[in-house]
Amino acid sequence: KNNGYDAWLRYDKVKDDGLASQYREWTAEIVASEAAVEGPVASAIKELQLALPRLIGQTPKLVEEKAASKRFLAIGTLNSFSYVEEAVQGPIAALNDDEGYLLKTITAADCSYLVVTGKTERAVLYGVFHLLRLMAQGESIQSLQLAEQPKYRLRMINHWDNMDGSIERGYAGRSIFYRNNELLVDSPRIVDYARLMASIGINGIAINNVNVHRAETFLITDKLLPQVAQFAAIFRSYGIKLFLSVNYAATIELGEVDTADPLDPRVQEWWKQKAEQIYSVIPDFGGFVVKADSENRPGPFTYNRDHADGANMLGEALKPYGGLVLWRCFVYDCHQDWRDRSTDRARAAYDHFKPLDGRFLDNVILQIKNGPMDFQVREPVSPLFGAMPNTNAVMEFQITQEYTGQQRHVCFLIPQWKEVLEFDTKVKGDGSTVKEIAAGSIHPYAHSGITAVTNVGDDDNWTGHHLAQANLYGYGRLLWNPELSSEQIAEEWVRITFPDSDAVQQLLVKFLLESWSIYESYTSPLGVGWMVTPHYHYGPDIDGYEYSKWGTYHFADHKGIGVNRTVASGTGYTSQYEPEHAARYESLETCPDELLLFFHHVPYTHVLHSGKTVIQHIYDTHFAGVERVEYWIERWKELAGEVDEQRFAHISGRLQEQLENSKEWRDIVNTYFFRKSGIADEKGRTIY
Ligand code: GCW
Q1: Which of 125, 296, 380, 543 counts the most CB atoms within 10 A of its CB?
Q2: Is 38 a catalytic residue?
């Protein structure tokens, strides 16, 4: 149990006797007429049957019609009840969403009951998970009146899993879906994974890497589709649609058509038949995720066609079935000459896609990374997001900690994502936040939402670091309700995951909330990014990418550092923002400190708004970052005995590794800039 496998679905025994007996009273009998039919309601009942014995040591009695007890739980879609309708219809009607649910205590003449209901089975499942979350946190369920619906329609997860079992940028073991080019259809983990995902409201999962290599190209063929369909069936019973990443050049790769030209009728016909074939085995198939003309993947450019041509060809094929195309905008020149100062990778997505606005079909959605570069610890928000009013969009986050410590370091990413969501793009005046754009409330998108690259693998605890589970949990919760604060999300997660100790809960919340800023402080400074070991992206290598083809440079010399992205004298990237932001980033006076080196090349002696010089800021933050890691390790040690030994030891071990690695970062970054600049640390600390 303490290997972390249950994650936030532990359902540890409720300690408070009063609450436990309250829960027992309300859940002794469960009325659920839909329990027998396979589907999300049945899954919800199963979850209750698993959870309640653990939480309160009582197995609920299932009944089909109205219960005999004076208090009971009633679970089902609105239509499944004959007797509760009036009391719930009003609040349910007020939910404009078929995923919204109601938890309501109803007092009738002869009994009181708690009803969990919604318009669809999926809504009921979400409602039951909410109820269980309340119990796991020790909240009273006596008089509930709770109606909730998700902010985002698409709440997706992307896996970068390969069929050989490896995971691109995976830091938690091997794939839970594949091994040796076979699908693990009998693995019990798949159901548990679906439970975890449904419990945080995820409704779409793409099960393979966006880099679709040869083996995965076959996922859409007779050979493998029946097995993919088995995964889809498990997902379906948890309200989740399965998506696949597809190889843009599948026609060629599979040897069926000798071109992948999107305007060639043979290619179009091939994909239409492919769609028909997929939907014949997976009737609720979600659609395709596509990485095309990106990092050496094939795409329409080969045929002098553009992204709209490519995406629409697939969109046409999926349209009759309601399928979606998630077309990624991570398109840039990955064969850049580092000597060429005019090409700016940050500009690429906007330059490629913005001119295509209005040309994409209704079931095509552009998938845009949160920053213009690549999931760095700090980046400005992508100027492409919101810039195409006539094109559906989803925001792409990265839960897997590729550039944020690879699940060896603690880096709670919810605060980062919240900053992105709260960013007011101004595309339609004040209030045009990313949060609202992704919800489709600024531009009238047909489809929108949020997706993210997940951090799970087959490690016992799914995420490598126990504390990295908080990112996965928080991701789902944030998508359901982005008004939740980072603190609320962290608190919720610790209370469910470490229910035994207040001291542990208090410490972990504080640590999690500070962890992103700690990681930022000892890694690359002031938004400049990178400085990581090439390819692996763990640990420092200041010049690792400096003379490479990847377009990721810091341009440090003996006088200064940073990338000049101004219109006045740099790459002109700032002009991709709305005028207010463009002006703010363009000017040294108004550019925020944390992004200074993303937008400007400045001397080491440049004085920040904080009052420090750039070089002193680098030294100070790097020393401070390591000190904070040391501080939290000391605090954590004080909790010995408060946490089960297994998790205590695991977390202690990872913290030690974080400390060692943060010292490498500190000393290498500080030494590098000391040697480059020749400027001594004001405080005379050790620099090598
Ligand atoms: O962040 C980069 C990663 C690649 C990844 C790519 C992408 C799947 O280093 O591993 O490839 O982004 O998002 O396509």
Answers
A1: 125
A2: no
Q: Give yes or no for a contact between 12 and 497, defined as CB atoms under 8 angstroms apart.
A: no
375 lines ligand 1 (CB under 6 A): yes
Closest by CA position to 58, among listed 15, 16, 29:
29
Listed residue (371, 331, 334) closest to 352, CA to CA: 331
445 in contact with ligand 1, CB cutoff 6 A: no
CA distance 513 to 494: 12
The predicted pLDDT at position 95 comes to 81
Q: Which ligand 1 atom lies nearest to the CA of residue 168?
A: 10
pTM for the model:
0.98
What is the Å distance from ligand 1's center to 559 Cα? 33
Substitution candidate for ligand 1 out of 167, 168, 535 with most atoms within 8 A of CB: 168
Q: Which of 148, 306, 402, 520 is catalytic?
A: 402
Q: How far is the CA of 383 from the centre of ligand 1 (A)?
A: 19
| Chain mean position to CA 264 | 36
DSSP H or E stretch at residue 369: strand 364-369
**pLDDT confidence of residue 84:** 66
Q: Please tell me the total number of residues recorded for the chain in this structure.
A: 688
pLDDT at 107 over 90: no
| pLDDT, position 145 | 93
Distance in angstroms (rounded) separating the CA atoms of residues 246 and 248: 6
User: Mean pLDDT over all residues of the chain?
Assistant: 96
Distance of CA 408 to the CA centre of its chain: 18
Question: In angstroms, rounded to a whole number, what is the distance separating the alpha carbons of residues 114 and 142?
Answer: 8
Give the pLDDT of residue 302: 97
Would the CA dihedral through 128, 130, 134, 137 be positive or negative? positive
Write the DSSP assignment of 257-282 as a string of letters.
SS---TT-HHHHHHHHHHHHHHHHH-
Residue type at position 144: L
139 labelled catalytic: no
Q: Is 621 helix (H, G, I), strand (E, B) or coil?
A: helix
Among 402, 532, 538, 549, the mutation site with the greatest number of ligand 1 atoms within 8 A of its Cβ is 402
Q: Which residues pair with 145 in a beta bridge?
A: 104
Task: Report the 3 state secondary structure along 29-90.
Answer: EEECCCCCCCCHHHHHHHHHHHHHHHHHCCCCEEECCCCCCCEEEEECCHHHCCCCHHHHHH
CB distance 160 to ligand 1 below 6 Å: yes
Task: Tell which residue, 565, 562, 554, has the closest CA to residue 602.
Answer: 562
Burial class (CB within 10 angstroms; exposed 0-12, middle 13-18, buried 19+) of 334: middle
Asked if 267 and 312 count as a contact pair (C-beta separation under 8 A), the reply is no
Identify whether the C-beta of residue 76 lies closer than 8 Å to the C-beta of residue 32.
Answer: yes
What is the mean pLDDT of the segment spanning 166-185?
98
The rounded distance, in Å, linking the Cα atoms of 183 and 164 is: 10
Say what the alpha-carbon torsion angle 674, 675, 679, 682 is, to the nearest 10 degrees. Answer: 30
Question: CA-to-CA distance for 71 and 128, rounded, in angstroms?
Answer: 17
The answer to whether 116 and 73 have CB atoms below 8 angstroms apart is yes
Does pLDDT of 251 surpass 80?
yes
3-state helix, strand and coil shares in percent for the chain, rounded to the nearest 5:
40, 15, 45
Q: Are 421 and 438 in contact (CB under 8 A)?
A: yes
Looking at residue 85, its pLDDT comes to: 62
